[in-house]
């Protein structure tokens, strides 16, 4: 039997918020990026669920696009993380705060 | 419309601004004299073009003499307005008509002579370049004022003149008195600007337009009450700019500026703007009798008021300042009763002789190394013959001695007052004429005669051709300027006829009332004799008078205590309130409200900086909180929507 | 049905695991499990191709990238998050704001209605229909994605390969 | 199986294609000739901007929707595209002076700038949610890297890191919001949003809220603005200029298209937007008060300006769209000009980001100082500059009878008053008498001069002849369907 779209959305919302909170709690930029991946994937669940609900492929296309963009984004973000932290003893985003005010 | 008539006005207007810009940006690389040359050339070019324009316009038939030039020009594809803020459309338009042309001629012509004079007068100034940049700016803003085609641009020029005068009065920034005087002038002028702004709002409300053409065409559509209010608020602007009662206190203080600046303010620009405004807005005043009456009374009162103060002052420039106030009072009086041509005529002659008087006084001051107190002068007639002869010419003109210019223009005003049935105003105006003769000749005697030289330093006779030439030119103009109006021949009224075509009561001045003219001439002679008697023949009588009239004299010496009254009326309460506020509201307060406000602002600024912690996780948190707030609001909206839908 | 709920539990648990672990390697492992569960969820939604992609691209490629970076940056270093955070007052508000947002989102999505029964075509979510859609209806998206990948390549070379920079 | 061919209007895509070719040429030249100088590479960049603009000319006044409704080239996107190309060209001119120690390979840098702008053009023409997302991501991904191209400086590295992490977080909100919007109406097309918006279903409003967060982050609207000052400060000067102008232009295109597609003039869902606008005006202007770094100051200024521009959406009418375009153009001229002066004086270095460097500048370099004053006057909204008329237009839109409109108008005026102080401080500094030794002002290269002159020309011409432009076709935006 068909699972209601609301259930999928509830799961995706929970996953989304998990990611958002994780972003705020972790100090390791790599973990923060993983938290962001969680958020993006939460969006993917919602899209796929709606695609199924509307029987419309464009929702799935969006998911595919998000996966591709996520790959690009992860590559760039990790490259930047490497650039920033390569010469530092600790990988801690809170160290990166010379600009303020 | 021929091409000349559309491009020339803009050239006239922008040449002085161009001068300012060139001096400010290009001249630093060149010799300081380059600045003076550029400034003079700019104004002279403006003047030449104005003359050409004037000759062209006055050759046209009367109906074609007034025209509007708009920017963007007609060939631009788009509608000719600068801003369209429905339903208000504001064009950048210039209106050229005989009235504007008269003012433009004087502003550029006399302005040019004063520029010429400044070359020599300011020769020792450190900020030579800046001075000429400001002077050109001053002329530019005044041109904006008189050439504007609608009230908004008039206001722009009006404010610009105030700003330029602020810069020039406070030109000697190292003298606190000059800075204070500049600030005072600015504040009082801003009060006037507010008045004009209110008038503009009312105009907009009643006519839906600010353009001269539309407002004047529909002037009858508003009731007399509205017109009276508009007139009163415009008058407030005029009063502030023209130093009329009760906002006159800035003008004597403005003497702190360099003498050419005083000449420019008094003769060509600034103070005459009020007269121009009322003449320009004459369709409003013609239908607003109460406002017009107020104008006349203010003018008459100021004329008399300033003349009495002039009788006792010792500072040569201050006396001239009060004389200006008084003469402007005449003009305001004239335009107030509807004698627009007479007022304009007096403006023209006054520009000649007042600029001349300031230049002559400037030569004296220059040669005495800055001394302005007449008690330390005396006997200078022989030492400075040029200054003396030119000053005397100016005095003869201002006091109305035949055949000098003042005789014709002042008589025209007095004559018109009688013709238009204002006997009381005529009486006081005539009394003022007597006082004028007295204090002006008093000044001549104090400065140039009354025994030997009383100063400490020997005057040096530095003379500069650029100072002498304009003075001599103006002396000639002060003599012949009045001949524009001769018995049976009135060039002024006929020149202005097209501007005031809608007035049936525009009286020609050609028709002399000879008994009246000779009577005023006699009064001027009486004034001369009184001054001669008191200051040349019988100084002991002067002492006696001084002791008997001590309270009156004290009153006049202090200019009727206006400054003191204003101090107690406005400044003291303001400071009290402010300091109380500071004491109770802001414990560390030093200077009151503004400091408190500034501090609050800075506190808020710091709060905003505190938001920028530099930690990106904090930034993320700030975002999430924002998300929560927005979500909460939106779901509330959705809930409301659902509730609405359910109902 | 049961499959969905099992996957849900796995998704949430591993999700929390990802963000709770102090060792990034553990997080990556959690994330791999999470993505696998996600692929199963996609299967329950008739998104076969997406499930495949999820495993290949996400679990296969992206997470390996993460692992590389972790090894590159943390070898020989002590664990990252030692000692208390210098950002006091960060954890509690974050969790509170997160919970509030979750509650609000739940309100928002609670009554999402399934659209009226349209028969599911047999090839819904299959590779063929996916490719057809991508190259016709969503051709624009496809093209722009190519640009994004190009940007990523240039960007990574510029950021990470900066030894070759010439001035 | 037969596949119906996709109808593609190459006319509509031509500007982007031309620009992309330019980007590829830059990369090829960089690859083939290892010694190609900055001047050559950036010159190619400027030329491709001009070529792309030429490709835009046939589109003038037309309205083409192509690629199955994904992309629209209409009068609305035309102006945005023109502004983006203008910004890109000026960014190249500003970049020409970057010091060698600023790092980065010029070829990749130029290519990234070009692809970034293409992303912006995708956003300007995006007509469905997928295109919006892709445009934003293309723009952002390139910018994350560009922010870090000053990497010998630690602040540039910090900017890149902060930007990429926070930007991805914001994209997360954008994706989830898009998902909910999609779920609310069952279609990717922006045009379909209207039906869902009318019903104000919880799904739609939650989606729109999250979508707004994503856009608000890109626009640096409070409370999503916190990244902006740090990242503006850390990024290389030219990149900061592009961020301040290009990103805003492109994102406002998206915001306007979505709002115009979805809402009527009195939708209660827009109130959050007004609140954000008011908060941004206050935050931006108050925050700028104490700044002594000009790039930071410009960041706060751009926060406030973004707040002003949101006011243009008030009433959701045609005039608002035109006013928004006008204000954006004015903002582009003045901001690019101001950054141009900074680049010019600093000779490519960041030394003229410091307010102290401007003390008495007028007496050493009157022209740059005067032009800087002009730009700041325009940002503050002094008459006869472009910014003045823009603010007048916004004020007029704000007064549409609603309480929120009045509140925005009041805040706008208040913010302007505060900004007089903020910008006045800089101008005052330039005209203040110099005490002691001031840093030598040297820069006089021709490229940034062109940029500054272009900015100044726009500022003055738009200020003196505002009506001519406001009434011209590109600014009379066609109201989105």
Overview of this structure, please?
The complex is a heterotetramer of chains A (101), B (647), C (167) and D (481). Chain A is mainly alpha-helical and 101 residues long. Chain A has helices spanning 5-25, 29-54, 57-85. The mean pLDDT of chain A is 89. Chain C contains six helices and no strands. The mean pLDDT of chain C is 83. Chain D is mostly helical and 481 residues long. Chain D has one domain (10-475). Chain D is 71% helix and 1% strand. In chain D, strands 1-2 form a two-stranded antiparallel sheet. In chain D, a hairpin with a 4-residue loop joins strand 1 (64-66) and strand 2 (71-73). The longest helix of chain D is centred in the middle third of the chain and has 32 residues, at 154-185. At the A-C interface, helix 1, helix 2 and helix 3 of A face helix 1, helix 2, helix 3, helix 4 and helix 5 of C.
Taken from the alpha-carbon principal axes, the silhouette of chain C is globular
CATH fold node name of the largest domain in chain C:
Four Helix Bundle (Hemerythrin (Met), subunit A)
Compute the separation of the termini of chain D in Å: 35 Å
Kindly report the average pLDDT value of chain D.
87
Give the name of the CATH superfamily of the largest domain in chain C: NADH-ubiquinone/plastoquinone oxidoreductase chain 6, subunit NuoJ
Structural class of chain C: mainly alpha
Secondary structure blueprint with pairings:
The complex is a heterotetramer of chains A (101), B (647), C (167) and D (481).
Chain B (H helix, E strand, L loop, with lengths): L2 H23 L6 H28 L7 E5 L11 E3 L2 E3 L1 E5 L1 H24 L6 H20 L3 H19 L6 H32 L4 H6 L6 H18 L8 H4 L5 H10 L4 H8 L1 H5 L2 H22 L5 H22 L2 H28 L12 H4 L1 H15 L5 H15 L3 H26 L16 H16 L4 E2 L2 E2 H6 L17 H24 L1 H10 L1 H8 L4 H24 L7 H19 L4 H31 L1
Antiparallel strand pairs in B: 1-4, 2-3, 5-6
Chain C lengths: L1 H19 L3 H21 L3 H27 L16 H19 L17 H9 L3 H22 L7
Chain D lengths: L9 H23 L5 H19 L7 E3 L4 E3 L1 H21 L10 H20 L3 H19 L6 H32 L7 H7 L2 H18 L7 H8 L2 H26 L8 H18 L5 H18 L6 H29 L14 H4 L1 H15 L5 H13 L4 H29 L14 H19 L1 H5 L11
Antiparallel strand pairs in D: 1-2
